[in-house]
Amino acid sequence: MLGPRVATRLAASARRIAAPAASIRQLALVVPRRGVLLLEPQSLAPSARFLHSSRVMFAEIVEVEGPAFAESISEGDIRWIKQKGDFVNEDELVAEIETDKTSVEVPAQYSGTIVELLVPDGEKVVAKQKLYKLEKGAGGNAPPPEPKADPSKPAPLDSSTPVSPPPPPPTAQSAKPAEIPKQQPKPTPPPSAPISSQPVVNVQAKPLAVPKGVPVEQAITGSRSETRVKTNRMRQRIAQRLKDAQNTYAMLTTFNEIDMSNVIEMRKAYQKDFIKKHGIKLGLMSPFVRATAYALTDQPIVNAVLDENEIVYRQYVDISVAVATPKGLVVPVLRNVEGQDYAQIENNLAALGEKARDGKLAIEDMEGGTFTISNGGVFGSVFGTPIINPPQSAILGMHGIFDRPVAVNGKVEIRPIMTVALTYDHRLIDGREAVTFLKKIKTAVEDPRTILMNL
């Protein structure tokens, strides 16, 4: 408790301090009551301004760096998913960096609002480069949600809003129904064009000249426009690698045919038991991958690589499996296939295939590989010659399965036949070794028991 004289002096001092603050809406009137200082709000003139603090004074703005790349990747093109002013949560996807092999995701390191993009969309970026500025905070610039009105409760009236008097009673003239003016329908706005991260150049069609003697109504009609779209980095890299392979390797292709009857019957006979035990279906790729690994151990020169004046023999079998994605062809690698069975191969294929379709393949998933299998049969391919995947020395091309008449024990029978092609580097692999290797795959696929007996 304060004495009356002390309380009066303190109240006067508080009023002198608060008097210059003419920029706030309300002041607290300090009055002494029973020896205690009390604060009573006092309204100021309507022209007085609010005293508020800007969030910029207290906001923490950080510059966010991009992710690190693998040693084989030096740069990539950035594609922004979020824009300036967008609020992002921690770990939410902000951008993607498209490299020569895959797309690297750029998640948000903090929750907050993007205040500036430091790199334009489509520009090249390097590892650990600063990409954008982020204002850290839980709410960012997002406005708070408006409270929903309760229909059971009437809305409160604002004392500052003038209340209009009740309408006068209707007269004889006003009792007539008033004509409702016809409103002109608002024109429908044109649909907005989709925004693309890649520049598109449209070439307008030129009118065709009508030949002499041909009526105008019989002239050729229709659009002859063209569209140019910038190629992504993955497509550019694929084109460069394939052309380098043609310029470097002495490529030669040998062919053979595989009777798929036993594999198809094996799948029908053991599919339910296989799913019950391993939780995954038995496909056609696992017999080929297992047979290829078996043939590579039998013909190690196909698993080797030519390095200038030396031949490098690999004591392991890492098989790259070509997977088609919307952005291009990727080749994730199955490691140490020589020691895997059908179930392990199927599970690894399913995991890599899912990551490839979702665009979540890491650089490590595609590095290395000693041999490649390309299955064009899933698209209905009948015949073709694959190109070697550098720096490997050979590639196996699988094609579609079609019923064909074949001679079996002196009789003509209809069998499901697949054509397979082996393209190899003739600088390193001789024709005898290539043909022997492909025949080994044929035997192991047609009769998997040869693998068990090491024949």
UniProtKB/TrEMBL annotation:
<dbReference type="GO" id="GO:0006099">
    <property type="term" value="P:tricarboxylic acid cycle"/>
</dbReference>
<dbReference type="GO" id="GO:0033512">
    <property type="term" value="P:L-lysine catabolic process to acetyl-CoA via saccharopine"/>
</dbReference>
<keyword id="KW-0808">Transferase</keyword>
<comment type="function">
    <text>Dihydrolipoamide succinyltransferase (E2) component of the 2-oxoglutarate dehydrogenase complex. The 2-oxoglutarate dehydrogenase complex catalyzes the overall conversion of 2-oxoglutarate to succinyl-CoA and CO(2). The 2-oxoglutarate dehydrogenase complex is mainly active in the mitochondrion. A fraction of the 2-oxoglutarate dehydrogenase complex also localizes in the nucleus and is required for lysine succinylation of histones: associates with KAT2A on chromatin and provides succinyl-CoA to histone succinyltransferase KAT2A.</text>
</comment>
<keyword id="KW-0816">Tricarboxylic acid cycle</keyword>
<dbReference type="InterPro" id="IPR023213">
    <property type="entry name" value="CAT-like_dom_sf"/>
</dbReference>
<feature type="compositionally biased region" description="Pro residues">
    <location>
        <begin position="184"/>
        <end position="193"/>
    </location>
</feature>
<dbReference type="GO" id="GO:0045252">
    <property type="term" value="C:oxoglutarate dehydrogenase complex"/>
</dbReference>
<comment type="similarity">
    <text>Belongs to the 2-oxoacid dehydrogenase family.</text>
</comment>
<dbReference type="Pfam" id="PF00198">
    <property type="entry name" value="2-oxoacid_dh"/>
</dbReference>
<dbReference type="InterPro" id="IPR050537">
    <property type="entry name" value="2-oxoacid_dehydrogenase"/>
</dbReference>
<feature type="domain" description="Lipoyl-binding">
    <location>
        <begin position="61"/>
        <end position="135"/>
    </location>
</feature>
<dbReference type="InterPro" id="IPR011053">
    <property type="entry name" value="Single_hybrid_motif"/>
</dbReference>
<dbReference type="Pfam" id="PF00364">
    <property type="entry name" value="Biotin_lipoyl"/>
</dbReference>
<feature type="region of interest" description="Disordered">
    <location>
        <begin position="136"/>
        <end position="198"/>
    </location>
</feature>
<keyword id="KW-0450">Lipoyl</keyword>
<comment type="pathway">
    <text>Amino-acid degradation; L-lysine degradation via saccharopine pathway; glutaryl-CoA from L-lysine: step 6/6.</text>
</comment>
<dbReference type="InterPro" id="IPR001078">
    <property type="entry name" value="2-oxoacid_DH_actylTfrase"/>
</dbReference>
<keyword id="KW-0496">Mitochondrion</keyword>
<dbReference type="InterPro" id="IPR003016">
    <property type="entry name" value="2-oxoA_DH_lipoyl-BS"/>
</dbReference>
<protein>
    <recommendedName>
        <fullName>Dihydrolipoyllysine-residue succinyltransferase component of 2-oxoglutarate dehydrogenase complex, mitochondrial</fullName>
        <ecNumber>2.3.1.61</ecNumber>
    </recommendedName>
</protein>
<dbReference type="InterPro" id="IPR000089">
    <property type="entry name" value="Biotin_lipoyl"/>
</dbReference>
<dbReference type="GO" id="GO:0004149">
    <property type="term" value="F:dihydrolipoyllysine-residue succinyltransferase activity"/>
</dbReference>
<keyword id="KW-0809">Transit peptide</keyword>
<feature type="compositionally biased region" description="Low complexity">
    <location>
        <begin position="172"/>
        <end position="183"/>
    </location>
</feature>
<dbReference type="InterPro" id="IPR006255">
    <property type="entry name" value="SucB"/>
</dbReference>
<dbReference type="GO" id="GO:0005739">
    <property type="term" value="C:mitochondrion"/>
</dbReference>
<keyword id="KW-0012">Acyltransferase</keyword>
